[in-house]
Amino acid sequence: MSDLELLLPGEADMLVRGLRSFPLLEMGSGRWNQQHEHLEKLNMQAILDATASQGEPIQELLVTHGKIPTLVGELIAVEMWKQKVFPVLCKLEDFKPQNTFPIYMVLHHEASIINLLETVFFHKEVCESAEDTVLDLVDYCHRKLTLLVAQSGRGEPPEEEAEDVSPMKELQTQAELMEFEIALKALSVLRYVTDCVDSLSLSTLSRMLSTHNLPCLLVELLEHSPWSRREGGKLQQFEGGRWQTVAPSEQQKMSKLDGQVWIALYNLLLSPEARARYCLTSFAKGQLLKLQAFLTDTLIDQLPHLADLQGFLAHLALAEPQPPKKDLVFEQIPEIWERLERENKGKWKAMAKHQLQHVFSPSEQDLRLQAQRWAETYRLDVLEAVAPERPRCAYCSAEASKRCSRCQNEWYCCRECQVKHWEKHRKACLPVAQGGRVK
């Protein structure tokens, strides 16, 4: 493992062995919280190992013990909880929690899992070890990217409002902001799945190319580029968990997320297995030919393989579109989402009320104990080591050396910037800070 170890090899093995699936009713419970803490430690250790380039034992352990399907199942379970139970909790008139951090941890669970999957799916054996759940993962990524395209059509992700709002409303805002980052992680995971296109099952290929028409969805992502925006006349890109201003000299450089889209398109359009399965209808042809405008010499210099894609598009422009295929195909379908929905249909309100009483209304003593465990899990030295770069001021983007004293999460270069940014930061800061201070 890396020089900075959060987990000893024996500890990591024990935590991976213990990973299991939880019913939706147990989301946020004591045992569920313990597994969430274990996942966070595995997540941070996996990033440390990948950064140090000294082997990646977490990835090896997950494959050896067959836990990738478990992670995919948990990912989709918490996604369903957020869609079906969380909105009900927010509407319950008798639910006015003093501390919303226990609910925030459930919302954050999805981000933790997708981040871990992004780290380990770089290796093809991880995708292969997902077995049948790769179908469920492809569907999950498609849902996230579809929402990302829809969000880009409505404008920027929501910003925190300055006026006083209820804690649950603040939590809803945080969940929406978190959803944007989760979708970007899902894009990277999907790209890694396309790297394995030569070993995917026919059902998975059909799901990606026929059911979801992922090549056309990826074209829409390139058109909208939701990870880029203009702010005050300056180009900004979303990297490392925040919007960063791009220097004029760097604006022709391909962003990491643009690169993920181009590689996924290359895999889906030029691999022999995918080309044999993808029907180039008139609609698909029209969408794909939009890529020609993006394929500049500067772009191809940065990713030379795209010259092959440029040649493919030149040939496609002269070819006749294919009629839609009407073959009778027997294929597998994803099971996790449908199974969870079937098992819990009609129980969402009862589930929300049960969790209100037994999970999300902890005593002061329980909150203190939980806060101690959170402090042990989120060690500052480890958090700084896994950060993608030196911290930047949340207000002016200059290099920062001072933390918010309340939540210890946000960085600032000076007191003046912290004061100016407080109205925006307070919505994220207070729930976190309350987790360590029980009133």
Description:
This protein has 439 residues and is mainly alpha-helical. The longest helix is centred in the middle third of the chain and has 28 residues, at 167-194. The strands form two sheets. The protein has a three-stranded antiparallel sheet, with no helix packed on it. The protein has three domains: 1-154 and 167-200 and 332-389, no CATH class; 202-329; 392-438, no CATH class. It has helices spanning 9-17, 30-52, 57-64, 68-84, 86-91, 101-120, 124-129, 133-154, 167-194, 202-211, 214-224, 256-270, 272-277, 282-288, 297-302, 306-318, 336-344, 348-358, 364-377, 380-386, 415-436, and strands at residues 228-231, 234-239, 242-245, 402-403, 411-412. The model is unreliable at 435-439 (pLDDT under 50). It contains 21 helices and five strands. Its main location: membrane. Belongs to the ZMYND10 family. Residues 393-429 form the MYND-type domain. It is found in: Apical cell membrane; Cytoplasm, Cytoskeleton, Microtubule organizing center, Centrosome, Centriolar satellite; Dynein axonemal particle. It holds the Pfam family zf-MYND.
Pick out its properties.
two-stranded antiparallel ribbon, mainly alpha, three-stranded antiparallel sheet, globular
Summarize the structure.
It comes from Myotis brandtii. This protein is mainly α and 439 residues long.
